[in-house]
Design goal:
By secondary structure, this protein is α/β, with parallel strands linked by helices. The protein is about 25% helix and about 10% strand. The chain has a 7-stranded mixed beta sheet. α3 packs parallel to α5 and α7 packs across α8. The longest helix is centred in the middle third of the chain and has 16 residues.
């Protein structure tokens, strides 16, 4: 497979300087890995405009060089910090200075870090759904993933406890107030997780706004969840789990979902029934990764800058693994780890093309009021040119 259009690095750190640990916004529970897959047919079709087209195993071989990058929020470890301080005495480390030199040989340019304009960046928060009934049965016996009874699997009671823990975390750290949009895979377990974590709390009767989730949706035994005081929710098929074979990865009809999750926006989904899932062919890992890259590209059609995405283990794993191929091995290893149930990882999405050519909102043009402001280095250059003329 060719290089991805998006790369993942540790918070603009393309070396190992950022070390390995996730930042304060990352929360974890128990991990459940997904099985490997076979090829997937080329019948998945594309749609135009604001909709997403699904690449197939044949199209994923034509992915171009990265158009923009995705960066992983991390916090430097004690070891990395100590290494950067060198042998500076402990009592002087807070006042360590960066020494400047006129010699280019003493200050070589480094490709280990990067600097990007803010208006070409988005922050995204990737979440894997909480524990589903298929995770429990599949860990006991892998063949259980084939059980028809696990069709569109819902969360377990433990899964809902994981949702409550992550909700408490994003509220305490302030993330809940920052997110402008929640994108969710249109399966029962992901939508239950999304509304439980990022929704507006318990729904009160008599409120004019539709609830995000009705009471007891998907055998949850949970009260209705309000759509007030929370970001909008958008269902997108492109961030679904591996397609095909496993009944737990087949969605229900959109008609049914609209009765269970009235305030989720399903307008980007074309077909009421699940036409992407087939019973006899499992989507290939390469196709999942290519679909993930197209999905990340599509995010630049959105105006929101802080976006939460609630998806699945296989989709997140194969997508991020592709982005880690141009990273330092330590960062690539970090990106290549499977998500735990209800784990959250924060990323910075960086546009290196014109996909995100929004006008900067915080920049100021300067020279207001206007005045003379010729820089000395430019003046020196002009003087030299005039002298040569």
């Amino acid at each position: 497979m060719a290089k991805p259009r998006v790369n993942l690095f540790a918070l603009l750190d393309r070396s190992n300087a950022g070390d390995k640990r996730l930042g304060d916004l990352d929360a974890a529970a128990k991990n459940t890995a997904k099985p490997e897959a076979a090829a997937y047919p080329s019948r998945i079709k594309g749609v135009d405009g604001q909709r997403i087209w699904f690449p197939t195993a044949t199209t994923c071989t034509t992915i171009t060089a990265p158009a923009f990058r995705l960066h992983l929020h991390t916090a430097p470890s004690a070891a990395a910090a100590a290494a950067s301080l060198g042998r500076i005495p402990r009592h002087r480390r807070r006042h360590a200075r960066l020494r400047c030199s006129a010699s280019t040989s003493e200050m070589e340019a480094s490709a280990s870090t990067a600097l990007y304009p803010v208006h070409r960046c988005k922050t995204i928060y990737l979440v894997r759904h909480a524990q589903g009934i298929h995770n429990v049965e599949g860990e006991k016996d892998h063949s259980a993933y084939m059980l028809p009874a696990l069709l569109d699997a819902q969360l377990t009671p433990l899964g809902w406890s994981q949702v409550d823990c992550l909700r408490e975390h994003v509220t305490k750290c302030g993330l809940a107030k920052k997110i402008e949009l929640v994108i969710v895979s249109p399966l029962l377990r992901t939508m239950q997780t999304a509304v439980g974590v990022f929704g507006g709390g318990n729904y009160a009767d008599g409120v004019s706004a539709s609830p995000l989730m009705v009471e007891g949706a998907g055998h949850s035994g949970r009260p209705a969840i309000s759509s007030l005081n929370c970001p909008p929710f958008l269902a997108v098929e492109a961030c679904r789990e591996h397609l095909g074979v496993h009944p737990c990865d087949k969605r229900s009809s959109i008609t049914k979902y609209r009765t269970l999750f009235p305030a989720i926006d399903f307008s980007l989904i074309e077909n009421d029934e699940d036409v992407l899932w087939v019973p006899d062919v499992r989507e290939a890992n390469e196709s999942v990764a290519a679909r993930g890259m197209k999905f990340i590209d599509w995010l630049w059609t959105r105006e929101e800058k802080e976006i939460a995405i609630v998806s699945h283990s296989g989709f997140l794993f194969h997508t991020l693994k592709m982005y880690g191929k141009e990273c330092h091995p330590t960062v690539a290893e970090e990106l290549g780890k499977h998500f735990n149930n209800c784990e959250l990882r924060s990323m910075v999405l960086v546009d290196r093309s014109m996909l995100g050519s929004d006008t900067p909102t915080c920049n100021f043009p300067g020279k207001v009021p206007a005045g003379l402001d010729l820089p000395s280095d430019v003046a020196d250059k002009k003087h030299a040119e005039n002298g040569q003329g």
